[in-house]
Amino acid sequence: MTFKSGAQLLVDVLTANGVDRVFCVPGESYLAVLDALHDTREIETVVCRHEGGVAMMAEADGKLTGRPGIAFVTRGPGATNATAGLHVAMQDSTPMVLFIGQIARASREREAFQELDYRRMLGQLSKLTIEIDSAERVPEIVGRAFRTATSGRPGPVVIVLPEDMLEESVEAVDLLPNAPVEIYPSLDQLAELDRMIEVSERPLLLVGGSRWDASARESLQLWAAARELPVVTAFRRQDRFDNTNPCYVGDMGIGTNPDLLAYLASVDLLVVVGARLDDLTTAGYSRLAVPTPGQKIVHVFPSAEELGKVYRTNLAIVATPRGFAAMLPNSGAGKLSRATETARLRASYEKWQQPLPAPGTVNMSEIVSEFRKQLPHDAIITNGAGNFATWVHRFHRFEALGSQLAPTSGSMGYGLPAAVAAKLRFKDRTVVCVAGDGDFQMTCQEFGTAAQAGANIICVVVDNAMYGTIRMHQEREYPGRVQATGLENPDFAMIAKAYGCFGETVVSTDQFFPALTRAMDAGRPALLHVIVDPEALTPAQTLSAIRSQTATRTP
User: Fold this and answer.
1) What is the pTM assigned to this prediction?
2) Is residue 176 one of the residues assigned to a domain?
3) In this structure, what CATH number is given to the domain that contains residue 58?
């Protein structure tokens, strides 16, 4: 017989399931796991600066690979800090496993040092929260976690690890990897879908969600092209369809092309593949009538619980995007009227992407429009939340699957840790984080993680000296009463230099591109501090314009 500790068994299960990287902030509650990781060459341990960064890096890794991203944090404060990333994984349908160190079993229910009941605390933030009460159950429960995280609608699983359980010695067992189960549509459902498309005069295909791979995306693109369907993507899922494809006509997010919204109102068939039809994709559930839209709805989703949850469907198909796409024929028939309308919408999209005038010396629409041409086609762009992101969503074109990492949950601070995870996963790809000044400072300490791990990212910090999104709403709702939305910022380029990295400040559009070239050639993490005029709130609105509008309507 071979005996191993619970911690050693845990690392063995991770290895058997193909885990090659974990993210952590160390804690005494799971020192036994860190010790077991010391003895393996298969798993890289990335030490972070804050548990929020840990969870966001693991979530981003899960988004990119389709396998659970792995995070380790300690009990109490470590767990509470990690909840921001856990919330991203839940709302973004990302496979992830968060391991939390826990007090010894004999101390439970006494409010021991840093004790929390994680089932109660994290029940709404995970698909499953479970504590391993015996080392011999490690293979069973960790295997269940991998299946749960990747099956149906993917999401995060939390496993709680009592510190004495990790040191407990039990007999080792043979371990087998877990694989997600694909779900396929029936032939009758596909025939009905084809019939509905054939009779439709104004269809629209909406793509989003998770459980995609390159083959599934390619199959869907061929299928859409054969039928000359106009295609849009869900909020912050623009990389689910090649933005250079003639069928692609834009995204349904914040600041959507008005021409596209007008078409949505007129369509007679909406085919949704992978997306949840969530709040931001539907603009607060206003773009489609609840519960019965004026359009016929076909909804393809890997979890039956989501189908009909808000909108009644005419055809509900329980299938993963991979399973659905694998059954699609490449051939098909289009219509002249449909081809004409798709071409018109494509032209409108390209016009919508043309740079706009902007106040001040830095024009972000020109910068994003130009750097999309300078970056490799598979460059990964990451961002958190804030008005700054609207320039990325509107003016960039996402060509490759996995080229966009952005939280549909609207979590600030996501872009930097996501960029670190992306660069570690794809060392040969260019990774650019675009962050606002407030957004960046939520997790800016993870620039140190990038430096230590050798993740040579490029971070573009857009500095308008305020929480821009909140200021926009404040100016609109409470005119003339600015409160708590201004920021006194540091020299962000100096922060990068303090970590031994490249940093440069940009104060005009023409300075940006030479600085970008120097950042790309730096051979180490780089940060460009871009100072923009506070007037430039969004691509289409200035601060003064909002004030003028509120003054007009105020009695």
Assistant:
1) 0.96
2) no
3) 3.40.50.970
